[in-house]
Every structure is written in structure tokens, then in C-alpha cells.
Amino acid sequence: MMSKLFGLMRHNKENIRKEVILALSNLFTSTPENLEFMNAYFLGQIFELSTNDISPEVRREAVLVLCNTIKSGNQKLLKLLLDHGIIEHMGKIIQGEGDQRIQEIVLKGIGDLLGLGLSNIPEGYSPDVCRLLLDQNNTMQVIKELRRNENPQIADLAFQILGGKNFGHEN
Fold first, then answer.
1. Phi, psi (5° rounding) for residue 149?
2. Is residue 90 situated within a structural domain?
3. d(CA 35, CA 20)
4. Is 38 inside a domain boundary?
5. The domain that contains 144 carries what CATH number?
6. 171 occurs within a structural domain
7. Which of 6, 18, 123, 157 is the most exposed place for a label (fewest CB within 10 A)?
8. How many domains does the chain have?
9. Is residue 169 part of a domain?
10. 29-78 pLDDT, tens per residue?
């Protein structure tokens, strides 16, 4: 079944790719064990769809999967995401994305990464280390520019990230 889902993530029809992402999103919100398996299996493809899919809806759903996984993940899962470059990937998304809904989702995900409770931070990934990684790929500069965004939610999220405040969200 997993190989069939993986193949459908590359289908030429937008609706099919979107439905597969939605199905995976539902699977990702189940037990931590399922999250770990699903992400290890599908993480690369989800990264790919979140930045390179021609459909904003498919990109948005893929970004939601990543950000919801950050929010609901255990330490082992967060380490998997961090080891696979989720911070750099979020930076890549926000720097190349004009869709404000996707920008808002990414900012929430970055905020969750920076505001993780001490019990959830995987070894080697303190909020300070995450900030340094965001600085290295120019993401913090983009977030600084987003403080002046016309969308008040985006401007507020950017301000919170730059102010170092912890915050939660509902998607």
C-alpha cells in the first residue's frame, strides 16, 4: 500500500496528489510510531511537493503535513525532521513562496521549532541552534521583511519569531 501511495504522490493530476497528501496528513496525526514510519518513508517526497509542486493547494497541504508533524511530534520524530533539514527546508519555502497562506503556515512551524519545550528538544537542536540555522540561509532576513507584511497574521508571527516569544497555534 505504501508504494502505491508513494507513486500517487507523483501523479499528473493535482487532485490525486492533493488527496494523497490529505490521507497522509490523517495518518501522520495518529500515534508517534506511525508518525516516525510515515515520515521516514515519505519525508523526501513531502519536502519535494512542498516546494516544487505547481499547485499551490498541493504545496499548502504538504507544508501543513510538515508543520503539523513538528507540532505533534515526539523527540525522536523531531530529531528525524531536524536531521533531514526541516529548518533549511522551511527557509527555502518561505523565501520562494508568494502564497500568503503558505507563508503563514511556515511561520507557525518555525515558531513551533523555536518555541519547543525543553523536554522535546532533541540533543544538539536548542532554539538557539535553530535560530543560527535560520540565519545561515537568510531566512531570518526574510522573516524581518515579513514584519511589514500587509497581512496582520503574517506580520505578527514574524514579530513573535524575531522577539523570541513562544507561541502555539491551531491549523
1. -65, 145
2. yes
3. 16
4. yes
5. 1.25.10.10
6. no
7. 123
8. 1
9. no
10. 666 666 666 666 778 888 888 988 888 899 999 999 888 888 876 677 78
Q: Are 94 and 137 in contact (CB under 8 A)?
A: no
Q: Which amino acid does the sequence have at 114?
A: L
Residue span of the structural domain in which 51 resides: 2-163
What distance in Å separates the CA atoms of residue 67 and residue 104, rounded to the nearest whole number? Answer: 11
Grid coordinates belonging to 152:
496582520
Burial 87-120 (b: 16+ CB within 10 A, else e): bebbbbbbeebeeebbbbbbbbbbbbbbbbeeeb
Q: Is the pLDDT of residue 169 over 50?
A: no
Q: Which of 48, 68, 70 is nearest to 59 (CA)?
A: 48
Query: Are the C-beta atoms of residues 104 and 113 closer than 8 Å to each other?
Result: no
Distance (Å) of CA 84 to CA 23, 64, 66, 81, 102? 22, 17, 12, 5, 20
Q: Which of 141, 145, 166 is nearest to 154 (CA)?
A: 145
